[in-house]
Specification:
The chain has 33 helices and 26 strands. It has 878 residues and is of the alpha/beta class. The strands form five sheets. Strands 10, 11, 14, 15, 16, 17, 18, 19 and 20 form a nine-stranded mixed beta sheet that branches. Strands 8-26-25-24-9-21-23-22 form an eight-stranded mixed beta sheet, with helices on both faces. Strands 3, 4, 5, 6 and 7 form a five-stranded antiparallel beta sheet that branches. The two termini are 22 Å apart. Bound molecules: adenosine-5'-triphosphate and calcium ion. Adenosine-5'-triphosphate binds next to helix 18, helix 20, strand 16 and strand 19.
Amino acid sequence: MASPPPEVAVPVDEEDRETEGEDICAFDIPGKNAPRDRLRRWRQIALVLNASRRFRYTLDLARDEERENLRRIIRAHAQVIRAVFLFKNAGQKALQESYDGTKFESLSQRFPIDLEKLVMLNRDHEAIMLQEVGGVSGLSDLLKSNLDRGVSSNEDELLQRRDIFGANTYPRKKRKSIWRFVFEACQDLTLVILMVAAAISLSLGMATEGVKDGWYDGGSIFFAVFLVIFVTATSDYRQSLQFQHLNEEKQNIQVEVIRGGKRVGASIFDLVVGDVVPLKIGDQVPADGVLISGHSLAIDESSMTGESKIVHKDQKAPMLMSGCKVVDGYGSMLVTGVGTNTEWGTLMANLSEDIGEETPLQVRLNGVATLIGIVGLSVAGVVLVVLWIRYFTGHSNNPDGTTAFVAGTTGAKQGFMGAISIFTVAVTIVVVAVPEGLPLAVTLTLAYSMRKMMRDKALVRRLSSCETMGSATTICSDKTGTLTLNKMTVVEAYLSGTKLNPCDNTGMIFSSVASLLVEGIAQNTAGAVFSPEDGGAAEVAGSPTEKAILSWGLEIGMNFTDVRSKSSVLRVLPFNSVKKRGGVAVQVSDAYVHIHWKGAAELVLASCKSWFSVDGSVHPMSSDKYNELKRFIDDMSMSSLRCIAFAYCTCELSMVPREDLDKWQLPEENLTLLGMVGIKDPCRPGVRDAVQLCSAAGVKVRMVTGDNVETAKAIAFECGILNAKDAASETIIIEGKVFREMSETAREEVADKITVMARSSPNDKLLLVQALKRKGHVVAVTGDGTNDAPALHEADIGLSMGISGTEVAKESSDIIILDDDFTSVVKVVRWGRSVYANIQKFIQFQLTVNVAALVINVVAAVSSGAVPLNAVEVGLFS
Ligand SMILES: Nc1ncnc2c1ncn2[C@@H]1O[C@H](COP(=O)(O)OP(=O)(O)OP(=O)(O)O)[C@@H](O)[C@H]1O
Ligand SMILES: [Ca+2]
């Protein structure tokens, strides 16, 4: 292992002295009045660490390669299976015949398709076999499923499917045994040096001083070495158990599935063949399957194919591969392959789950320990040679003053014993110099803080983030879901230019306007409303925003299924964070199409050319009316509401490009405003204190949100990110668009000052993180949505939210905050700092003891031929 420069030690030595005696406990975040030195010290370490971030990637290279190779093998395997099957079938009679009648050989009489064929079908990405069985509806018949209602939620039914087609789990690779860890611990260079020294010391000791008295030195070194090995091995083993546990937790993804006509939550492991699973942006495709219906569904297949390519899925390319991520749109799929019958399952079953990587700090300290060991070894070698020369040339004396070795007079045995006792001196020098406890101290500290972080609801995906987090200088947090609860309700509404009071009182609104609005709500949504068969209250499903709007729709008298059956959807452009609006085209009659838009209020309002008045008449949008409506939005925003506007326009059916529907860009100008709603999303309790704690500790919290400036500002005030003094300055609050259009250097300049960034696109978040990093910050990013993924990935430490976070966000993060609470982020910073504090202290102690003992022993050995400090005295643990 190359010895990296021991820079870590530099800030430690001089800075720690200044703060000695201060009674701040190790993991305390220094208070506001803490000496600036202390804060500065963290910064310094930060800079040192930051330079080593490259390690994070180089360390992972081997594993990435292994994964890549496996993937290649598995894919090749899949291709071969498919080729063989097609070859076999080519000679046989038409496929269609084998599926009808009673001739097929199926695993069970229940399903007219067997597992083998199903696996082939999944591997056939051109969907030729799918067409042969009659498309997705034909397939669902074969699988005894229903495309709308899914399979029944009956336990027996699910069990039977699991028996026939397998469960959506895969066997885990066998865990490394404790002996493997013992073996690995023994391979440490410093310990090897020590063991050799111990063996020599033991045999020499016993040879010179007799068995009874001679074993002390050698024996005690052995004892210490075994102790170190034992502690290292058990702690590594415990850590591997913990990682395994974390892995299981990480893989146990909660998904939604439609069973018996209802959307229910289930673990990904419980999915069965025949299940109907809704997919939305940010999800992981939970099993192999076929697309039933989808809108703008785009899948990132890089995790399976290895090429980073976004693939659009539609009826022409309906095959979905397990393990891929949904990057845009939504849809639903029919599960056709689970567990090890999928390529993903095979990959996971064959991939070792060992994520016990070495952290940059460990790498460096191992280097330092090895370096010191080598120095000790060479010094001891030099001392040995010097002493031997002195001895054999008759320059060294016995304690009584006589010359120890006189050539020709001293007997061979006595001479040999003299040389041997010199050798013991050298061995002692080595033992004293080797800091075998150093790497162990790091391992123990990291393991300890990881356990503590776990207890504080932070799931550490990457061990190195434990230490990096301690040096974070700024946290860029998204708003929705992290600072706020993500529990949304519509609390204000404006229809036809008047405020509804209360917000569901549509009594005075002209019915044609209300029905247009309801049409927009019911058709232009990624969510759904389910009316239970037993007649209970309707259930709403979807993202929090969609749920809020749908619930409000129900309050103003929307009958979801009714409204949806009155018109047919031609084209959907789902909501995403870049456009900040979503649209749908529905055919309402033989001649007309309605295009409904729903999205960020001020953006939708800007594309409106007219508005509905209370009596149902349409008026052109005058600048007065525009300003009035804009004021409505600002008023709602200032009381921290998220504003969403609904607008629509009509279009003649003849204008619709019927054959090229997929490419049709819906008209989004000249709209007529239908209404606006203000959605309340309360601040998380405790966020204010957490933010204060951070800024007191020198960690600046910034808010980066997709929301409107005023809403962002209001929430920032509410949770203490902004205070009255800040608000006066302009650069502190910036819109994503303004930031985006700056030059790179200008961005770098303002980045430091930005406290709130509003109306940001996913890319703006990324740009901010990059600019801050170039400025020398160590940036932590918290986020939950797919729109946060690029920033999470780029950040020094990415923290995603465990409950509301999407799979894509979690995958891009280093730490998952299990309880979604911003206050847990602060705890992570705290534990990260404790790693540093502990290691700093240990290094200081270690280096003082080892270097001092080495110098004393060398000087004494060369001058008197004996060592004053032996291994037992110095304390082997230093
Ligand atoms: N499902 C939706 N349909 C239509 N408009 C929406 C929907 N969800 C959000 N919006 C609008 O788009 C805006 C921005 O959403 P975006 O996804 O970019 O940010 P966010 O994730 O909600 O916020 P943050 O970045 O703070 O987490 C919201 O302020 C809202 O006005
Ligand atoms: Ca969010």
